[in-house]
Write a structure and sequence with these properties.
Fumarase C, Chain A, domain 2, two-stranded antiparallel ribbon, mainly alpha, Ribonucleotide Reductase Protein R1, domain 1, 58% helix, 3 domains, 19 helices
Length: 477
């Protein structure tokens, strides 16, 4: 089983150290489903154009299906001497089908074969992640609707700024993850390009039918340039960039929840099932899930950096450096999918401390901007109003009072334009609900945003990309 495909050219056996060093089977073995499906389609195409007989094609396809079952059942033997998943499958096919197995590799190379496998793998995983994100978005909207009446401080520079609805704050993450979903969906169009037929780099002399193979494997188009087909890893870099942005969004959400769960904020409590304790401090309840997500963000960004660095100076076409693309890709895919899964399970179970949030929104001079806006409505310029309210804040701080706790006489000392009606305008509910501009935090506006999001999500559900067939034996070409 350890014979090399290139043994005719070499006079020495490959050193065992080299075999171990160059082997990728422990990583790329997870591509076996895609490699077998691609080989089945290639086999059918070879038979269709008359390069091999239909009888040979049947034998090959039956052998490939038997190998698929062996790997799936854990009965398949892997060996570093055979380097990668392609050579393992081809060697085992020879044991099953005999000499006819040697015909399968006609008109293709491991260069276009691995490009095919990775594209098929990544379009399947990308469609799955898009589906996961859709589910997460639905959960975010549900939690926002449930907390529509909860007011909290909005922050800039991590300082209390203006009161906002918790639902409005959560819907900001809906927008972020929506963009992630759209980016990945757009990326999918560049993943779903078939490289098979490029062979090593120059194409092939055989009269192959690339369009037929693409149809069997459900590719939208075929790669237009054979050199680019085997050397392109842009689609992986693009996915990793999109994954990194999504992880940054998860990291920001994690950081907020970590802060909010501290005694200093006390805005949220994690469910016991999604927290851990301390080995020495009995009172501790740690937000470890959110912390791990925050930490894993660096790992995914690192995957992108690693691939960009690897590809930045490679000459065309294929180089063995590219073998390293799969480790970072698999790590990023697994990490992002796991983070979406754990957040989807945890998010609906978070307990928000509504009373504490509302108390925080009522303190810290969050009504200063609204007082300035009130003065503007009475005819004062905003710059003058800004200055006067700043003076009023300093005065209130010196008296250890909030702006709305000052008397009318105290407020009128700063401007005779102020009337008693100002107090109703400085209530936190009024400050929230007067912000009715599109995209604002007013209750009615946020209700509309939630309803619009629900409608969009329902529409999207019927149009999610679906490449799950690639792990379904019944859907093999």
């Amino acid at each position: 089983m350890s014979e090399k495909l290139w043994q005719g050219r070499f006079s020495e056996k490959t050193d065992r150290i080299v075999e171990a060093f160059t082997s990728s089977i422990q990583i790329d073995r997870r591509l076996y489903t895609y490699d077998i499906q691609g080989s089945m389609a290639h086999c059918k195409m070879l038979a269709k154009v008359g390069i091999i007989s239909k009888a040979d094609a049947r034998v090959l396809i039956q052998g490939l299906e038997k190998i698929r079952q062996e790997i799936a059942a854990g009965r398949f033997q892997f060996d570093d001497a055979l380097e990668d998943i392609h050579m393992h499958i081809e060697a085992r096919l020879g044991e099953i089908a005999g000499p006819v197995a040697e015909k399968l590799h006609t008109a293709r190379s491991r260069n276009d074969q691995i490009a095919l496998d990775v594209r098929m793998y990544l379009r399947h995983e990308t469609s799955h992640i898009i589906e996961q994100l859709h589910g997460l978005l639905s959960l975010i909207v549900g939690v926002a609707r449930k907390n529509l009446d909860v007011i909290m401080p909005g922050y800039t520079h991590l300082q209390r700024a203006q009161p906002v609805l918790l639902a409005h704050h959560l819907m900001a993450y809906y927008e972020m993850f929506s963009r992630d979903m759209l980016r990945l969906d757009n990326c999918l169009s560049r993943i779903n390009v078939m490289p098979l037929g490029a062979a090593a780099l120059a194409g092939t002399t055989y009269p192959i039918d690339r369009a037929y193979t693409a149809t069997l494997l459900r590719f939208d188009t075929v790669a237009a340039n054979s050199i680019d087909a085997v050397s392109d890893r842009d689609f992986i870099m693009e996915f990793l960039a999109d994954a990194s942005i999504a992880m940054v969004h998860f990291s920001r959400l994690s950081e907020e929840l970590i802060l909010w769960s501290s005694a200093e904020f006390d805005f949220v409590e994690f469910p016991d099932a999604f927290a851990t304790g301390s080995s020495i401090m009995p009172q501790k309840k740690n937000p470890d899930v959110a912390e791990l997500v925050r930490g894993k963000t660096g790992a995914v960004i690192g995957c992108l950096t690693a691939l960009l660095t690897m590809m930045k100076s490679l000459p065309l076409a294929y180089n063995r450096d590219m073998q390293e693309d799969k480790k970072v890709l698999f790590d990023a895919v697994d990490t992002l999918a796991a983070c979406i899964e754990v957040y989807s399970a945890m998010l609906p179970k978070l307990h928000f401390n509504q009373e504490k949030m509302q108390q925080a929104a009522a303190a810290g001079y969050l009504d200063a901007t609204d007082m300035a806006d009130y003065l503007v409505s009475r005819g004062m310029s905003f710059r003058q109003a800004h200055r006067l309210v700043g003076e009023a804040v300093s005065f209130a701080m010196s008296r250890k009072k909030e702006l709305h706790a000052l008397s009318l006489d105290e407020l009128q000392a700063f401007s005779p334009l102020i009337r008693r009606e100002i107090f109703s305008k400085l209530s936190i509910r009024q400050m929230v609900d007067r912000r009715e501009c599109e995209g604002g935090t007013a209750t009615g506006t946020v209700k509309n945003a939630i309803a619009t999001a629900e409608k969009k999500l329902n529409h999207m559900k019927a149009h999610l990309p679906d490449f799950h067939f690639e792990n379904n034996p019944e859907a093999m070409p």
